[in-house]
Amino acid sequence: MATYLLRRFLLGIVTLVVITLIVYGLARNMPGNPLTVQLGESDPSRKLNPEDQRRMLEIYGLDKPWPVGYLQWVSKLVRGDLGRSITRKQPVTKLIGERIGPTVLISGTALILTWLLAIPLGLYASARSGHIDERAVGIGLYVLYSFPAFVAALFLQIIFAVWLRGTSWELPLFGMSDLPSDAAWTARAADIARHAILPVVCQTYVVLAYNSRFIKANLEEVVRQDFIRTARAKGAGPWRVLVRHAFRNTLIPLVTLLGLSLPALVGGSVIIEQIFTWPGMGRLFFESIRERDYPTIMGLTFMFSLLTLAGQLLADLLYGLVDPRVSVD
Amino acid sequence: MKPHDASSRPPSRGFWAEAWARYRSRPIGMIALAFVVLLTVVAAFAPAIAGTKPVVCRYKGRLYMPCLGYFNRRWEAPVFTKDRFRGTYPQNLKDKDPDSWAIWPLIFQDPYRRVRDNEWPGRPENPSRDEGRPNAINLFGTDQYGVDVFAKMVHGTTIALLVGFVSMGLAGSIGIIVGAIGGYFGGWVDMLTSRLTEVVMCIPTLVLILALVAVVEKPTIWKTMAIIGATGWTGIARLTRAEFLRLKESEFVMAARAAGAGPVRIMLRHILPNALAPVLVPITFGIAAAILIEGSLSFLGFGPPPPTASWGSILNSARSNLQLWWLVVFPGAGIFLTVLAYNLVGEALQEATDPRLREARK
Lengths: 329, 362
Prior knowledge:
- The complex is a heterodimer.
- Chain A is mainly α.
- Chain A contains 15 helices and no strands.
- Chain A has helices at about 1-30, 35-40, 50-60, 65-80, 90-125, 130-145, 150-165, 185-225, 225-235, 240-245, 250-260, 260-265, 270-275, 280-290, 295-320.
- The longest helix of chain A has about 40 residues, at about 185-225.
- The model of chain A has no long low-confidence stretch (mean pLDDT about 85).
- By secondary structure, chain B is mainly alpha-helical.
- Chain B is built from 16 helices and 5 strands.
- Chain B has helices at about 5, 15-25, 25-45, 45-50, 80, 90-95, 150-185, 185-200, 205-215, 220-230, 235-245, 250-260, 265-300, 310-320, 325-355, 355-360, and strands at about 50, 55-60, 60-65, 100-105, 105-110.
- A 3-stranded antiparallel beta sheet of chain B has the order 3-2-4, with no helix packed on it. In chain B, strands 1-5 form a two-stranded parallel sheet.
- In chain B, β2 and β3 form a beta hairpin.
- In chain B, α7 (about 150-185) runs parallel beside α10, α13 (about 265-300) runs parallel beside α14 and α14 packs antiparallel against α15 (about 325-355).
- The longest helix of chain B is centred in the middle third of the chain and has 37 residues, at about 150-185.
- The chains are: A mainly alpha, B mainly alpha.
- Chains A and B meet through α1, α6, α7, α13 and α14 of A and α8, α9, α13, α14 and α15 of B.
């Protein structure tokens, strides 16, 4: 076990180095730099003169070639410092700390909803497999699965923010809260919840459709096995066979799926957060790319890839936990 | 074709004929395939379906096809530039050559500009802003600048199809080459290619794509396709590797090796045809994913710049004009139906080629 973990750890570090090196190289080679992109686009008269620009680049350490910059970034990272955002004049860790809450609010709710709905749906679909109602639900899920989230988001915005404007069904178009931060916390919570409904729906339905189809496919594989016939033969009822005997044996792939959804939980969705101008991690990443804010791009990339690797490791470890036949050694 | 192929008729149907027969028996798969074929037809004949340039016209004694100018500006005969047509044909043709005649596209609307007043005799200017709801002249309405949405959609079909084929063609080639090399040679080569695949897999797709798009100085639709292809090959590589690992131990490969075939020949002629069916399924799903990614990139404003008429860019223009619902409904439905069709084709293909699923159906 210890050698396995050590090997995974070392491999993970190599992977992390390669990923961050690639993204740093890409980021530094994007046309423009944080100073020119930020000031030049909004107002040409505020463009820095070349002398000031050179001086400021020197302050940020951007005057050296990018491999040197990468080494500097790594040496800071090793000391636990993700650096300061250039365009926002704040430590990157603080920015991430501010944005992580709103993202988890959306993606965490979506994740819980997904699993709460997907498991019963999957069980129902395989219990009624082949019946007309199951076919209808199956087609519905398939359609949802192919429905692009950004199109759905626009449809929902048109329905709930334009057509239902003025009714009690109206939902806010974007943002996280319209109330000032000193409003009563109950009112604020209700307001945030109203703002969160549409993003949560958009982030839930695709994964829900995928997961319940996945559960059904796994169940159908298990149901054909001999031990299910044995369970039926000993007189267990259909639900008992499905839940106690079949479903428990599909947990292994589900656990893998759960582990792999870890990065999305914290990383959020760039598109959904962008459409609903939700102040989360995905939007932060999108903005930092547009602003060429290298420290923020790198901080987020580092976090995303760390979580992806951690999710994979978690999935493999849980695999061994759920299925005693699987050994990580 | 080698001569002995023609002389020895196979007694039973080959793998692909068998798979096609099974595919044909799935109505949903066939409908989806028909939809993809329909899109291809629309893309190929886009300038004849919607445009403001004649499909065929006779001008000063010669025949021209100005509609080809929609595919490539240079294919529009230079005589029209010389005679100062400036892109408007109906009036100019009549004025400059009274004997001229022309066959017009089915819908006289332009995907790149607003049709002006009386440009088509007796028809008013396209409505703009919130007045452009769908009507008999503008089937899908007009956008805020008065450009016809139906024409934009028809001409955007080319992009939707190309994105799928070009980016997945690229991703498929990279994936198959990387997976084949790793799976066939094994050892440290496999170690290297597997690590490479893992690294690309670990970077979130949209993060990598957004970073790459930002690096490219002048984004064009071709660069977008290349980027989608260059990031979407990992799943295909892993599958190909697994297939090659399995097949390289089989007897027919040993026989080929004994007959003196080199590694490249064995990989291309002997293993690849047998590994192709399982790899084709993720490629089909990948086409759907590529169309989705292009749509979301254009939607985020990271797509190719105007006047490229991609479906995603119509949606992008709807973002700030939500009351213009027709700017959402039609391109949204277009992307959705195309993605759905490719997913259904992939599903049917999987059931037609995977022997395990075939057994399960019985």
